[in-house]
TrEMBL record:
<dbReference type="InterPro" id="IPR002052">
    <property type="entry name" value="DNA_methylase_N6_adenine_CS"/>
</dbReference>
<protein>
    <recommendedName>
        <fullName>Release factor glutamine methyltransferase</fullName>
        <ecNumber>2.1.1.297</ecNumber>
    </recommendedName>
</protein>
<dbReference type="InterPro" id="IPR004556">
    <property type="entry name" value="HemK-like"/>
</dbReference>
<dbReference type="InterPro" id="IPR007848">
    <property type="entry name" value="Small_mtfrase_dom"/>
</dbReference>
<keyword id="KW-0949">S-adenosyl-L-methionine</keyword>
<comment type="similarity">
    <text>Belongs to the protein N5-glutamine methyltransferase family. PrmC subfamily.</text>
</comment>
<dbReference type="GO" id="GO:0102559">
    <property type="term" value="F:peptide chain release factor N(5)-glutamine methyltransferase activity"/>
</dbReference>
<dbReference type="InterPro" id="IPR029063">
    <property type="entry name" value="SAM-dependent_MTases_sf"/>
</dbReference>
<dbReference type="InterPro" id="IPR019874">
    <property type="entry name" value="RF_methyltr_PrmC"/>
</dbReference>
<feature type="binding site">
    <location>
        <position position="140"/>
    </location>
    <ligand>
        <name>S-adenosyl-L-methionine</name>
    </ligand>
</feature>
<comment type="function">
    <text>Methylates the class 1 translation termination release factors RF1/PrfA and RF2/PrfB on the glutamine residue of the universally conserved GGQ motif.</text>
</comment>
<feature type="binding site">
    <location>
        <begin position="183"/>
        <end position="186"/>
    </location>
    <ligand>
        <name>substrate</name>
    </ligand>
</feature>
<keyword id="KW-0808">Transferase</keyword>
<feature type="binding site">
    <location>
        <begin position="117"/>
        <end position="121"/>
    </location>
    <ligand>
        <name>S-adenosyl-L-methionine</name>
    </ligand>
</feature>
<feature type="domain" description="Methyltransferase small">
    <location>
        <begin position="109"/>
        <end position="200"/>
    </location>
</feature>
<feature type="binding site">
    <location>
        <position position="183"/>
    </location>
    <ligand>
        <name>S-adenosyl-L-methionine</name>
    </ligand>
</feature>
<dbReference type="InterPro" id="IPR050320">
    <property type="entry name" value="N5-glutamine_MTase"/>
</dbReference>
């Protein structure tokens, strides 16, 4: 028999892909999911022989580097839980910051909003639920991602309209927008070799990577389409690669947007570019 705290430490040491603190957090998350046990249960005694096979199986998956969000099938975002699969990016803290900025800067009632490349739908669903009577739309090229996004919208009772669309080939299907937002693919392929295997091996490359020779591909295409879709005085919000803040800002200014600004995340990295339509 060992107590909860001892088990966490023992299993965390087996997660060699992670720093020890992150490994402990992952083990605690897994134990809470399967057993309902949290850090406050440190003195709760456990017998490893009696642990459910489903927990042991999931721990084996965790040791391969598979993200825990995919193992348990859900991820937290802005105080809610979203279904995730291998066909969607896992919602991240930096994207919560993007959403929070949009909510804070746009208190008006009944705004028309579009999210491009929606994945799990975490951006448009959160905006729909947090903003006053917003009319919210979202697109993605992946039918599998749209199915998950639609399920999330239904489970969270968010009236978001989802549309299959390829921004590289098609016009934006919605016009008269107050807000256009996107967290598009922005990682140059050459960075793949330096990335953690739990991202490269398990999350969809379609939503992550851009050609080395054209890292601003999606920003340019979305901004071009946005010139027709965003109404005068409307705003464009991008989540960005930390190395391309100035490049994205300059691109938007060259294309006729105004008030382009780079905003840093809580870690002090360039993470968001915001601009206005004249």
């Amino acid at each position: 028999m060992i107590n909860y705290n001892s088990l966490v430490k023992k299993w965390a040491e087996e997660l060699e892909l992670y720093e020890i603190q992150e490994a402990q957090n992952l083990v605690e998350w897994l134990l809470e999911h399967h057993l309902g046990l949290r850090r406050v249960d440190m003195m709760h005694f456990l017998d490893e022989k009696d642990l459910p096979q489903s927990l042991l199986d999931d721990f084996a998956r965790l040791k391969t580097g598979e993200p825990i969000q995919q193992i348990i099938g859900k991820a937290p975002f802005y105080g809610r839980e979203f279904l995730v699969t291998k066909d969607t990016l896992i919602p991240r803290n930096e994207t919560e910051e993007l959403v929070h900025l949009i909510i804070k800067e746009n208190p008006e009632n009944g705004l028309k909003i579009l999210d491009i490349g929606t994945g799990t739908g975490c951006i448009p669903i959160t905006l729909s639920l947090e903003m006053k009577n917003a009319e919210v739309f979202a697109t993605d090229i992946s039918e599998s991602a749209l199915e998950i996004a639609d399920k999330n919208a239904q489970e969270l009772h968010a009236p978001v309209q989802f549309v299959k669309s390829d921004i590289l080939k098609e016009e934006i299907p919605i016009e008269g927008l107050d807000i256009l937002v996107s967290n598009p693919p922005y990682i140059p392929i050459h960075e793949k070799s330096s990335m953690h295997t739990n991202v490269v091996d398990f999350e969809p490359g379609l939503a992550l990577f851009v050609p080395n020779e054209d890292p601003l591909l999606f920003y340019r295409k979305i901004a071009e389409a946005g010139k027709k879709a965003i109404k005068p005085g409307g705003r464009l919000y991008f989540e960005i690669h930390e190395n391309f803040g100035k490049a994205v800002k300059d691109l938007l200014l060259e294309m006729g947007y105004s008030k382009a600004e780079i905003i840093q995340d809580l870690n002090g990295k360039d993470r968001i570019v915001r601009a206005s339509m004249n």
